[in-house]
Amino acid sequence: MDKLYIKDLEVFANHGVFEEEKRLGQKFVISVTLDLDMHAAAVTGDLSKSVNYGELCAEIETEFQRESYDLIETAGEKLTDYILSRYNQIMGVSVLVKKPWAPIHKPLDYAAIEINRSWHRAFIAFGSNLGDREKNIQTAIDSLSARSDIRLLNQSSIIETEPWGYAEQDTFLNGVMEIETTLSPADLMTLLLDTEKLLKRERVIHWGPRTLDLDILFYDRLVYDHPHITLPHPRVQDRLFVLEPMVEIAPWYIHPVLGKSMTELMEQLKKSEV
């Protein structure tokens, strides 16, 4: 990936824990590294296919001065969020914020924080079998796609399926959406759980009825085992109601552990059920 650098941009702002920092302000020195594909701009000479770093410097100053925060960590996080949401062509950003006048009463060049964020590709399974199923699903999709840290790239058809794991319940509506997100896997999982709560999901019976079910199937090609989330989802290959929507929108996506495409996994599962 190509990189664009902005180094040591001086901005006067009012961030800091102490009242004097908020009232008087101080100098901050900001460096930014952008990950983007600059080939089209280089070949055509068209600046619109890259990033106008003059305009970006002005925007960095405006955004960094917009509010006053106790922590430069917060100011840096807000700045990375702005850059990634403002410029669709930027796939990743690193923001270094130096604080040369840090009030610690010790000689130093500066205190600093560095924040690195990028867009990640993820597949989210959704399902519902209680209440207005279609409305539940659409409300969840609208809520997620309205966020600045999520981009909805693709969505499968919604299919009606028999319940899995616990048979004594109504049929489900299921599907899969493909997104890009700057959230970590843990933060994305927390967001999905909060969205389920918004739709009044109650966890009474394991694999039982639910107004909304949201699961991370894949996150980039990450293999990750944590008490609250396992990636890839450990039962992708066992669930036709997951594989059919995946085959519709990403048939040749390779399972990072099993080494087989979604098409191959679906065919394998269908053969095993004959």
Automatic annotation (TrEMBL):
InterPro entries, per the entry: Dihydroneopterin_aldolase (IPR006156), FolB_dom (IPR006157), GTP-CH-I_C/QueF (IPR043133), Hppk (IPR000550), Hppk_sf (IPR035907)
Reactions catalysed according to its record: 6-hydroxymethyl-7,8-dihydropterin + ATP = (7,8-dihydropterin-6-yl)methyl diphosphate + AMP + H(+); 7,8-dihydroneopterin = 6-hydroxymethyl-7,8-dihydropterin + glycolaldehyde
CDD domains in the cross-refs: DHNA_DHNTPE, HPPK
Biological processes annotated in GO: folic acid biosynthetic process; tetrahydrofolate biosynthetic process
One GO MF term: 2-amino-4-hydroxy-6-hydroxymethyldihydropteridine diphosphokinase activity
Keywords, sorted A to Z: ATP-binding, Folate biosynthesis, Kinase, Lyase, Nucleotide-binding, Transferase
EC numbers for this chain: 4.1.2.25, 2.7.6.3
Domain 7,8-dihydro-6-hydroxymethylpterin-pyrophosphokinase, first and last residues per copy: 206-217
Pathway: Cofactor biosynthesis; tetrahydrofolate biosynthesis; 2-amino-4-hydroxy-6-hydroxymethyl-7,8-dihydropteridine diphosphate from 7,8-dihydroneopterin triphosphate: step 3/4; Cofactor biosynthesis; tetrahydrofolate biosynthesis; 2-amino-4-hydroxy-6-hydroxymethyl-7,8-dihydropteridine diphosphate from 7,8-dihydroneopterin triphosphate: step 4/4
PANTHER family: 2-AMINO-4-HYDROXY-6-HYDROXYMETHYLDIHYDROPTERIDINE PYROPHOSPHOKINASE
Function in brief: Catalyzes the conversion of 7,8-dihydroneopterin to 6-hydroxymethyl-7,8-dihydropterin.
UniProt similarity note: In the N-terminal section; belongs to the DHNA family. Belongs to the DHNA family.
UniProt name for this protein: Bifunctional folate synthesis protein
Taxonomic placement: Bacteria, Bacillati, Bacillota, Clostridia, Eubacteriales
